[in-house]
Amino acid sequence: MNLVADFIEANLDVLVRRFAEATRGLESTQGLKPSELISTLPEYLHAVAAICRHGSTPERLETRARLEEAHINLRLRVGATQEDATDEYTLLGRLIPQLWEDVQPERKPSAAGLQCLFQQLEEAMDHVVVLFSGYSLEDRQREKRFLRQMDALAPRSLEPGADMQGPLKPLVELICRALVATGAELFLVDAGGRRMVPIAHTEHLVPPPGRWVDSQGPSFLGRVARSEEPLVLARARGLEDAALDGLHVPGWSTLLGLRLWPHGELMGVLCVGFAEARPVPPQTKRFMETLVEYLSGILDRALLMGQLRETATRLEMSESRYRLASQAAADTVWDWNLLTHEVAWSGETRRLLGFAPEETGPLSSWWVERIHPEDRERVEHGIHAAIQGTQARWQDEYRFFNREGEAVRVLDTGVILRDVTGLGVRMVGAMQDVTLQREEESGRARLLLEARTARVQADTALGHLHVLLQQAPVALAVLRGPEHIVELANDRVCQLWGRSSDQVLGRPLIEALPEVKGQGFQKLLDGVITTGLPYVGHELHARLARAPGGEMEDTYFNFVYQPLHEAEVGLQGILIVASEVTEAVQARQRAEGLARTLQASEERLRLAMDAADMGSWDIDLATGQGTWDARFRAMLGLPARAELTLDEAMRFVLEEDRPKVEQAMADAARPGGSGEYACEFRARPPQGSQSVRWISGRGHVHFGPDGQPVRFVGTGLDVTERKLAEETARQRAEFEQYLMGIVSHDLRNPLNSIMLGTTSLLRREELNERATKAVLRIQSSAERAVRMIRDLLDFTQARMGGGLPVQCQDLELGALVRQVVEEARMTAPERDLQLSLPQAGLHGCWDPDRVTQLLINLLGNALKYSPEDTPVAVRLREVPGSVLLEVHNGGEPIAPELLPRIFKPMQRGVPGMDAATRSVGLGLYIVRTIVHAHGGTIDVTSTREAGTTFTVRLPHADAKQAAGA
């Protein structure tokens, strides 16, 4: 410790000069003479050196305390803040170690000497806190004692809507005892966020029913809910009821109130009452702020745990229903995570395919490998096209190898779940074995084939029929059997169709004369065979060649179908005689053409709307009468058949959304406009239902010759599921951010206690070396936890608040970088930290605290991921309009697949790092957020040959604008 004292005394003039230069530009020192800046500093440094050299004695400690008090009182007189005064002692802690930066290692002070120096400075800062706030060490110990008792009484969880008087009354009574108050009452806001309801009171078991107070009202409690500081109400007795609205204050004369405000939102109000009229000292207000903040954290955590328990219960019930449903179903149910490619199969997989649940692979590749090779490409292409598209369902039938290697035919159906951007994230489906069903269908086909091959020999009857066919004008054929084989045909048939008799005879009719396919011909012939009754007048259309090799012409026939009975003519079949009616049919068809075209167009529109699950409307704007199809009536909840005007239909729109729907229709109907209408609104829930439906309306207003709107047509689409999915995604993101904020916020108090405890232990001289090392390890772990919490808080603020705030000020960046590097050298003396700064100072407008945080994170990252025998280099240089800050380290490069996401939250470096260096993976994310808040950029390059370099570009002039953007 003598080396520390030697350095201080040998460089006393240098220290005083550097201190004066560093503090001259501070706001708290404006108006002070140079002598006043350093009035007690030389004598104070002599006192610190004496304690470090000879140890602490009552006389030396009294001298040091007297000099500290004189310095602090001077700062109080010029209006400096507590932070200004403590910052000056922090500055001394940075200036003194700079004295030995170029000294040989053996001449540098030991760790014990540094500890002695820093202990003197820490005690000076404690002295600042006592003199500025009047909050003594005894006050802090008393505060900790009551906070521990609050922890012991804190409920683990609070169910929403449950009675909270029982678990919260002991906490309210404890706060009363801590503040030496007569009584207290706790109010919490309801779900609407405005009404504050009494929850716990120290003087009665159950809060009086129906009592509440408006948080925005003029009452005392309303003013407390809107105030950031504790409010005092003296002479509460005899005040008007409006001032005491909502309060139950028997015997209270003075009221002290403070709001519960975790995470920037009003949770409630705590009101404490005193029997006598008296002023409330600042120490009591500060103590109440600490207790109420702690109470806010307890309630916030308990309410959150209650919500988590309720959510877990609902989830368990949902999963139970899913398990029971999958066990009762005959299908195999599967659940595919499209982001991780993991697939979960239901227990029915064993019964259907022979695989036990543990035998199914965890990834989708297991399913793909067992698809029949002839079906695999088609199935893969189809399912991925559905996922990458916009459709909600997929279905296919294919062959799948079961556990015994047999190919079973399955029908597979899946539903695709998408996020708010339309990306497929999950797919749930069911696989059904249809092998037996397909085999039955195949058996029926074989029976038909056998029936076709059974021919009836009737040579005599065929001879007579041949004579009849030659005499007929157009005798088509003789048919028999299930597929109606052409047995006979006259020459006219072959001429008309432009083919030889060999191409007609002995073939099924649809194969021999494909021109008649699709005209109901097969069904008609089946009916004649079945009933045994003749049929006259069937019109048949065909494209015929009038001469061999000639052009094809449209031709129409009227046919007579005469059944042939085996008992009468010796064979089973049909005799067909036809006459051509081409011209008459064409004339009739031309007359019917327009009607069919219109009908087809309307049918296509109807099918398209059915496929899109849309409804439609058509409104006469002159009369207000409307036509609404059944699907739109169901969406909006309109009566199924009643005639409705536009005004009557509007009553079925939710009242809150009615103005914007009316405005959208008015804009579309404005003369001279585009006439386009688009609006999303909610339909009024049906009677007895609590849920509303979201409808997306699209339409067009048609205008008459005079420019006035005459007709309004459009379509409606039910988008409720999309809206619910968007809301669920938003709530999930808010919940994650909210949970992270609570965890990081509530961890600070115990860690602060650990830090205070280790600091106190290290001050004890009776600690041996082993105990000192153990305490230092605890202190190091606590400091690392504090850094992790700081990162979590910054992350929460960046994600929920849209970025990190920066307070820019004129700054010489080179001096700041040198200071941070020096501190890093002290914490990692075994590492070689190289610093390259320009000769001229680099001045600009930046936030010094945020830039310090940025550089500390980059240095920590470089030290963590580089070998201990390699240097870490920090370079600062100026380029046009900006400055470049580079941090370089050697060692293993960053993996190429990690580089694109290295600045994203929750991303860490290589796996397998030492447990002591673990973090929450937010350091580089916060670095990038700080850089962006200054309007700058950050890049990283990493190769095995050149090492890893992070390059930060900070603009000179745009920092303030970026900070305020």
From TrEMBL:
Keyword Repeat recorded: no
Residues covered by the PAS domain: 318-390
Residue intervals of the PAC domain: 394-446, 677-731
CDD domains linked to this entry: HATPase (cd00075), HisKA (cd00082), PAS (cd00130)
Domain called Histidine kinase: residue spans: 742-958
Protein's UniProt keywords contain Transferase: yes
Enzyme class: transferase
Taxonomic superkingdom: Bacteria
EC number(s) per entry: 2.7.13.3
InterPro entries (alphabetical): GAF, GAF-like_dom_sf, HATPase_C_sf, HATPase_dom, His_kinase_dom, HisK_dim/P_dom, HisK_dim/P_sf, PAC
Single GO term (MF): phosphorelay sensor kinase activity
Keywords: Kinase, Phosphoprotein, Transferase
Pfam families assigned: HATPase_c, HisKA, PAS_3, PAS_4
Catalytic reaction list: ATP + protein L-histidine = ADP + protein N-phospho-L-histidine
Protein name: histidine kinase
Native source species: Corallococcus coralloides (strain ATCC 25202 / DSM 2259 / NBRC 100086 / M2) (Myxococcus coralloides)
Taxonomic classification: Bacteria, Pseudomonadati, Myxococcota, Myxococcia, Myxococcales
